[in-house]
Amino acid sequence: MRFPLHKNLFICLLIMSFSFTSVAQLNTTPPKSDFWSHVRFGGGIGLSFGDGFFSGTLAPSAIYEFNDQVALGVGLNGTYNKKKDFYKSTVFGGSLIGLYNPIQAIQLSAEFEELNVSRNWDDRLGIPNDNYWYPALFLGAGYRTRNVAVGIRYDVLYDKDKSIYADPWAPFVRVYF
Asked: What whole-number distance in Å separates Cα of residue 58 and Cα of residue 43?
């Protein structure tokens, strides 16, 4: 039995629409993002005290590993210092960090840090209180094994009168999980 051409065309379009619909339904699940599998969290905690001095620091950070060699991240920093009968200071700020591992055991870093420093001197000293922003740009190198890196960094913007650090050279230990 022969069908006219328009009926054949109708049947072909009907069959094709069912096949496209079934394929489209199979592919409706969106692909899962693997963004969080590349994110590592870490940071630092510091505590020191003695002879009327107290200092506490909390500095969480996170990096995104693009591959085995390159990672970029952000961090926060909060520090409180107090020296009895001398001064109190609070330091808050953030940082951007770039890490480069030319080989697995070596880690090179560049970290820009912007901190708000508020120093309140004891009134008996006659020193005016300070409140200012302090930038630091650290370039560093270290030895890395798995998720730990140990090394030294240098602040190329160091200002001995404004920096919260005693020296432009500073050792570091980085741990990211």
From this structure: 8
Domain that holds residue 159: 35-175
Residue 109 lies in a domain: yes
Q: Judge whether 170 and 138 are in contact, CB under 8 Å.
A: yes
E-strand stretches of 12-129:
39-50, 53-65, 70-83, 87-103, 106-121
Q: What pTM does this model have?
A: 0.76
Phi, psi for 8 (deg, rounded to 5): -65, -40
Query: In the chain, pLDDT over 90 holds for what percent of residues?
Result: 62
Q: Name the residue with tokens 């708000």.
A: 116
> Residue 107: which CATH number?
2.40.160
Structurally, the chain folds into a number of domains equal to 1
Of 153, 156, 152, 158, residue with least CA distance to 134: 158
For residue 50, is it left (φ>0), alpha (ψ between -120 and 50) or beta?
A: left
pLDDT at 165 over 60: yes
Query: Chain-centre distance of CA 168, in angstroms?
Result: 22
Q: Classify residue 18: in a domain, yes or no.
A: no
Residue written as token pair 């969290």? 41
Q: What is the pLDDT of residues 67-118, one digit of tens each?
A: 999 999 999 999 999 988 888 999 999 999 999 999 999 999 999 999 999 9
